[in-house]
Structure formats: structure tokens, C-alpha cells
Amino acid sequence: MSDKYEKWRERIEKHDLSHTTGCQAQVDSSCVICYRPAEIMKKEFRRFWKWYREEIPEVTSYSGKTEESFEELMDENFHAVDRTGTEKARMKKRLVWLITSMRYERSPDKTLSELGELICQMVVASEKFTKKRKEARNLYEEYLSSESEGYSTDGSNREQDDSERTRWYEETLTKVIMKHNLDCELGIESKTRDGSCQRCFPIPEGISNNNDFLEFWEWYRKTMDAELFTGETVRIFNGLKAVQFRNRTDINEENFAELTLLVLSMRYSKKPKYDIWEISLEILEILSVSREFGIGIKKAIERIRKEKEIPEDHFR
Ligand SMILES: [Zn+2]
Ligand SMILES: [Zn+2]
């Protein structure tokens, strides 16, 4: 906001003056006389407002338009990854509307796009402010701190176990994808590298001839609810395919890092069911079977599946 604040403050002053002089002025979405806040604050909005006030201490008030813009923003799908240009523009517009419909006593430290990014992150962390504030706040702080290993889980709590398993996914979403997306959309070179960005890593032309990759994608897409891959996915896959994996213990750190990067270079339509390690091991198994028997990826997947089925058949 610091970038736009002065202009904006002038507009507010002019508008406020018009209420005393009776002269018509520009509409101002942050005016509580023109747009009275609702008498009963909605639960989600109350959480948002409490959080925002703590995060941006410069904010002083919100208006009825803020509530309206908040509702509209919550209609957006924050997990969508391949938005069209119009959808992106609409999302950005809604963020700007929300931010500028509040008043600030002085210019916030953050710029308009930083504020937008912050709100996006919190929307995802709090699941659109449906989670209790404390819970969301804890989640959010965990996202921001790099030492998430210290996260304590109660082994008996299934729900917590599940969220632990898919934490990698949420972390990527907030720490990498959203950060990168904002820059990338604005055409700024992002400090956050995102292997799952098709704009940065377009799909190579010869992809229709890369049968192994296509067979892999066919399987992976279904297994992991993946919806998109990039040129980076293809590059890493081709590299890993060339590595000789004799068995699971044979794998070195570098290869494992590549497997992780492979998983992170794709985007998902919903929370995948698997832990990043589990799925990495699956991929590894497929690659090593394919290599060991000199068969394609699809055949390798079938072979592994059959091997796993044999014990059951024996019991029949
Ligand atoms: Zn007014
Ligand atoms: Zn990009």
C-alpha cells in the first residue's frame, strides 16, 4: 500500500469532506456512512478482521463493502492452478477491493501486492477462515517457520495424522506456488522458484513421443489426483529414468532429492492421499522394475501390481 497510500488518502479526505459540504465526490468504498457494516458480524469475517488487525496494525476500520468484498473473495477457488486470464484478473481485483475498502491511519509497511499475498496465504491456512483463529494462526505460523519438524502430533488422532501426511502439499502451496504465482502473474522475476509453473517451464514439444513419460503420467495422475505437469517434470523424469536403481537402499541423497522435486513439479486438484516419501518410493520402484527388466513404465506398473496380488491368490 505504501506505494498507493498518498493518492488514496487524498481521495478519502475529499470524500469525507463531501459529507459535510454536501458536494458530490467520488465514491469511496471505505466510507462507513455510505457503506454501513452489518450489525451482526459473520463468524468468518470476524476471524478475518481480528487476524488482519493484528497483522496490519495500521488498519483502523472496515465498511459494509469490506464485508461484501470478503464474501466475494471467499467464493474464489484458492486451490485452482490453471486459472484463465479473466479468472486471475477477477481474483486480483477482488483482493484489491477488499484491501482498499478498509481505512488505515498511516501507510502499511507492506505494498498492495504483499498484502494480497498475505491474505491469500491466510485464506488457505485457515481454510477460508472456517477454522478457529488460534488453530489457523498456529497453522499459519508453522507454514512460515522453517522448523516444522517440531510439530507435535497425537498418534491417536487420525485427522491430525492425515494432515501430517499431506503437510508437504500445503506447504508447497503456500510457501512456493502462491508466492511464485503472484510474481509470475505480475511479470516480475520471482525469487521463489516453482517447478510446477507451466509459464516458467513449458511442456517440451516432443512430449507425444515420450511414451515412458506419458505412461508414467497416466498412472500418477490417477494415483495422486495430479492435474498438471511441466517441462521440469519431464526433464527430471527423463534424468531419473537413466539412473540405475538396483534396490531401494541403493538410492543416494541426490536421487531422492530429484524424486522429491519431481513430485513438487506437478500440481494437484486436491490434497493427495500420500506422503511425499511414500509416493517417491512408489515411483522409485516403478523406475527400477522398468530398468531391471527392460520394460516400459506401464508394463512395470502391471508387473508390480501382479507381484503384490500373488499372495492373495495363493490363499484362495
Ligand atoms: Zn461516504
Ligand atoms: Zn512462473
What is the count of DSSP helices, taking H or I runs of 4+ residues?
Answer: 13
Major sheet summary line: 2 strands, antiparallel
- Estimate what percentage of residues fall within beta strands: under 5%
Number of structural units classed as domains: 2
Question: How would you characterize this protein structure?
Answer:
With 316 residues, the protein is mainly alpha-helical. The protein has two domains: 3-145, no CATH class; 162-307, no CATH class. 58% of the residues lie in helices and 4% in strands. It contains 13 helices and four strands. The chain has helices at residues 5-21, 43-55, 64-74, 85-100, 112-125, 133-144, 158-165, 167-186, 211-224, 231-241, 253-264, 276-292, 297-315; strands at 59-62, 102-104, 226-228, 267-268. The strands form two sheets. The protein has a two-stranded antiparallel ribbon with strand order 1-2. The protein has a two-stranded antiparallel sheet with strand order 3-4. Helix 10 packs antiparallel against helix 11 and helix 12 packs across helix 13 (297-315). The chain is elongated. Bound molecules: zinc ion (ZN) (2 copies).
SSE topology sketch:
Elements: H1 5-21, H2 43-55, E1 59-62, H3 64-74, H4 85-100, E2 102-104, H5 112-125, H6 133-144, H7 158-165, H8 167-186, H9 211-224, E3 226-228, H10 231-241, H11 253-264, E4 267-268, H12 276-292, H13 297-315
Antiparallel strand pairs: 1-2, 3-4
Bound molecules: zinc ion (ZN) (2 copies).
What does this entry show, briefly?
The chain is 58% helix and 4% strand. By secondary structure, the chain is mainly alpha-helical.
